[in-house]
Design a protein that fits this description.
Blueprint (H helix, E strand, L loop, with lengths): L1 H57 L3 E4 L5 E4 L9 H10 L5 E2 H10 L6 H14 L2 E5 L2 E4 L1 H6 L32
C-alpha cells in the first residue's frame, strides 16, 4: 500500500504543479488581454488627436499675395472670433511691450474668468497658430494686427486702422466723404 500511496502523492503533486501552471497561464492571458485593451484605447486616442491636428492645420492661417504684391494674413472665419472673456483678456494685455503668462493670468482674473497655467499655454498656442498673437520671445507674446481686429481694438500702434474681416482697412472718420468737417 505504501507504494500506491507514494504514487498517489506523486500524481497529486504533479496535478498541483500543472494546475498552478494553468492558473499562471490564465493570469498571463488576462494580463495580456488588459494590455491589448489599453493599447487599443491609446491608439484610438492618438487617431483622434491626429484628426484634430489635421483639421487644425487645415484651418491654419495662410498667406496670400494681393494685387499689389504684398502678402496679407488670411484668417478663416472660425478663427476670427474670440469668446467674450478672451476678447476682454486680449484687450487688457494689448500693449507695446507684449505680455507674458503672469500678465495674462492677471487679465484672466480681472475679467472673472478661471484658467490655469496649462490652459493659458494652450490658448496662446492656438492663438499663435491662428495668427492672433505672435511670440516675441519665449513665453512672451503680442497681438498681431489680425489679433487686434478680432479683439475689437480699433487701431494698431502705428495709428493705421487694421483691416476688417474682408481684409480691407476702413477709412478713418476724417477721410470718409460723409464725415463732417470740424
Amino acid at each position: 500500500m505504501s507504494a500506491i500511496d507514494g504514487k498517489l502523492q506523486e500524481y497529486q503533486l504533479e496535478v498541483g504543479y500543472w494546475t498552478d501552471r494553468q492558473r499562471g497561464y490564465e493570469s498571463q492571458a488576462r494580463e495580456c488581454a488588459l494590455k491589448a485593451d489599453l493599447l487599443r484605447s491609446r491608439i484610438a486616442g492618438i487617431k483622434e488627436a491626429l484628426q484634430i491636428l489635421e483639421s487644425t492645420e487645415a484651418e491654419a492661417p495662410s498667406t496670400e499675395a494681393s494685387a499689389s504684391g504684398a502678402a496679407r494674413l488670411t484668417v478663416r472665419k472660425r478663427q476670427r472670433s474670440l469668446t467674450g472673456h478672451w476678447q476682454q483678456i486680449m484687450q487688457l494685455v494689448d500693449g507695446h511691450e507684449g505680455f507674458d503668462y503672469d500678465t495674462l493670468a492677471e487679465a484672466v482674473e480681472a475679467v472673472g474668468h478661471d484658467a490655469n497655467r496649462d490652459t493659458l499655454r494652450s490658448q496662446m498656442s492656438l492663438y499663435k497658430q491662428s495668427g492672433i498673437v505672435e511670440a516675441i520671445e519665449d513665453g512672451r507674446f503680442r497681438l498681431t494686427d489680425a489679433g487686434r481686429r478680432v479683439a475689437g481694438i480699433a487701431q494698431s500702434d502705428t495709428g493705421e486702422v487694421p483691416p476688417n474681416e474682408n481684409g480691407a482697412a476702413e477709412a478713418a472718420p476724417e477721410a470718409r466723404p460723409d464725415a463732417n468737417p470740424a
